[in-house]
């Protein structure tokens, strides 16, 4: 299970389509997406409402508090929207301490309203939390004490009984419509494997609920059963996360394989680089370099697991070595090829790809004054470690090799000591 | 939130038996090897469930080979093995939910371990809800499982035998260990074996945000197991699970010492939110950070080192204290039996060698793509190889020139069928009408091919070759054969004659004269024909003789075969192969034809049989 945020545009598309299918609730919402590729005249042809109503436009970038940040264009015509977007598209903004360019906007009809309701459904281990308030909107955090909460156990719908405490204080004439709307929203959340659905706010237009601001997270592991319901869905990177070419390359490798291949560059000028097998171990290696006080020299976070093929490991290692040896200077560097003691991964087989990459890139490695530290255990580890040792002799790169008898993260300290000592020699 | 009411105490014992869903030979064998190492009397795998199949799987229990029953469904397996109370589910993430729910619903099953990674969150939640309501335990999803030292091991947990021995997992120690990560649990088994008397039980709950059972579930369980003296926990950034443990510690529900570390302190180094390797390991709010969880655990009374590096020391110190105060009496060392090594592994390690039983030289299916005589499939398709080109690769192990492969194709086309009345087609038709399947119909036809039907090509080639190579004059050859009482193969036709030549022969001859560098053997056959025609008008060179002689020309004139190879090709019966291949096309056609026409069972009419016997023939009518 992995929760992925989706764009507001997609959340609204899914809510509208599936509320109708699951509960017969027809939402009068319309929404259009605008990116750098948008052909405005085509967009107006596809969405006739764009020229017939006043409009709202806002960034659709997985961040909130857009109103507070002055990023919402209200009560505009289409020309006004185009102008609003032109001024902001591709421009970098800072939101809650994270900076990044705005690439996607959502355009909707402008709906003047008074009432602002709040609804959120979040997934918990034993069920779902449903929160509701008639004091929604930008001040929701200030009004948090007015938010009512019920817990819906796994496998139960949001029944009238369960939701009674949420809507008890609402005027009687809107009870039925709210009850139907909340049940329908919960049904969509369940049927489409949302792990979060939040409306802040939604309002009533002509007595009918109307979501103004919508935030959704899908469980992407449900793709195999939901892909038809989801349609053409996008899982954007978190706001502010831009990928370097190398990261992008590994990301696309990762998407194509059943194995897991992850790379995040933390500091391109860092001198300690890691390439670690296993989801649990990779975090611990990264922790350890930081815990030992060398976070400032840490180049990356990297994880490979799930038995990648030799070819995949080769490509992965190539990219990683390129990053680790870019911009060499006279100072020493270290590459940590780490891992725990595998349960079933054939260590010698996964090392084959890494060894090939090191052999190919030996000149780069030498030019960067890089020493390699290896630690691994598991099936066939002796052969794998032996091959690594032999490679060191063959290509003339110092490779220190350790097996399961050594502590897992011991090579982090060895790598740091190596850099410390080399730096000390230089400064003498 | 209150911890779930997980079954208290030990999940497993030395008598525990499991059912294994979706058979994988390696993990099952690893379980049985572990059993043997622990001195178990019965194997821990009672049965295997492979949807839709049944029978047995052969596996080793020590030196001995045993048969483990295979069942087609979970209920049938549970019925057959009522004592098995653990189901190890190796289903894919697509089918893990349905099979796990099925297993939880069986009254005999108490524990379900789900190995698959990528089970949808909502599906897992349904399983958790059912398990809680029915007092059952789920391990996973996305886990390697767990192990109770000296008693029971799930699937691939703890890796190789060598590692199991190094971690002393063949006998119980004093540590109860739980972590999210399967890989790290194996690492920690090693750590615990280095600094304590080893693991009593170790569980990996899996890397998902909502594991079927939690860190605190297992810690509470360890607290109630007398043999567990020390609890070691490896948590991870993301989620709230560690806080249930904090609550349990604060509430005094856990009295045994707990050494804990939560990994993911590095999350602060990342600029935007980060998803680590495990689905549940995601940086979220401050509360879910490793730092906050470590601090909370420490405040609640757990022993928390300052880094993962310090964990080994913290475990050592805690264990030493327990030994000194007399709480722990270190486990007695036992000598585990030696598990025989698998031949495959021993060969891989270069320790033994074994002869192969089969040799093959025409193709290889082991690489990226299959090859025919070294030519990869992509070349065959992209470069437009013909049927004849493929045949030449697989039969002759070389690429013959285009004129040769075209000739082979012509032979196949000309011999593909010869009407419904010839003996082979007749057999095929009769068999098809008896309602038999395609393969039976085809072989019924093929079985008639031999010395009297279709077998003449080979013989023609042999005799023409022998005579021509010896330089025999046509009349010497024909008369010589006559003396030996052999009809000259490839000569003579039931209908065709000097003035009514076989069109097929003419076409092949024309093609060969236009395309072959030499037609020496065919020319010889024609001189033989010229001689036999002086004897009778129907003693023409027939299609068998023509193909036989031209094939010799092909083999010689393309200059790609040694004399020895040519002799061998003729000897082995390649040309008969050509006829069998070609006529199969016709036989299959006849089979389909009869089935399409829904022809009833064939019965030969009485009128068409001469009924006779020895006595009646003595008294002719």
Automatic annotation (TrEMBL), chain A:
Query: So what EC number does this one have?
Result: 2.3.3.8
Reaction catalyzed: oxaloacetate + acetyl-CoA + ADP + phosphate = citrate + ATP + CoA
Give its localization. Answer: Cytoplasm, Cytosol
| UniProt domain ATP-citrate synthase citrate-binding: residue ranges | 241-417
Q: What class of enzyme is it?
A: transferase
Gene3D superfamilies the UniProt entry points to: 3.30.470.110, Succinyl-CoA synthetase domains (3.40.50.261)
UniProt main location, coarse:
cytoplasm
| Source domain of life | Eukaryota
User: Which Pfam families does this chain map to?
Assistant: Citrate_bind, Citrate_synth_N
Q: Cite a single GO MF annotation.
A: lyase activity
This one is known as: ATP citrate synthase
TrEMBL record, chain B:
> Which biological process annotations from GO are given for this protein?
acetyl-CoA biosynthetic process; fatty acid biosynthetic process
Give the GO molecular function terms: ATP binding; ATP citrate synthase activity; lyase activity; metal ion binding
Q: Which GO terms describe its cellular component?
A: cytosol
Short name of any one Pfam family annotated for the protein: Citrate_synt
Q: Which reaction does it catalyse?
A: oxaloacetate + acetyl-CoA + ADP + phosphate = citrate + ATP + CoA
The answer, when asked if Cytoplasm is one of the entry's keywords, is: yes
Q: Which UniProt keywords apply?
A: Acyltransferase, ATP-binding, Cytoplasm, Lipid biosynthesis, Lipid metabolism, Lyase, Magnesium, Metal-binding, Nucleotide-binding, Transferase
Q: Which InterPro entries has this protein been placed in?
A: Cit_synth/succinyl-CoA_lig_AS, Citrate_synth-like_lrg_a-sub, Citrate_synth-like_sm_a-sub, Citrate_synthase, Citrate_synthase_sf, Citrt_syn/SCS-alpha_CS, NAD(P)-bd_dom_sf, SUCC_ACL_C
Q: Keyword check for Isomerase, yes or no.
A: no
Write down the EC number: 2.3.3.8
List, for all copies, the residue spans of the domain called ATP-citrate synthase/succinyl-CoA ligase C-terminal: 178-303
Compartment list: Cytoplasm, Cytosol
User: So which residues are the signal peptide here?
Assistant: none
Top-rank taxon, per record = Eukaryota
Q: Which family does it belong to?
A: Belongs to the succinate/malate CoA ligase alpha subunit family.
Q: How does it assemble?
A: Heterooctamer of 4 alpha and 4 beta chains.
Annotated protein name in UniProt = ATP citrate synthase
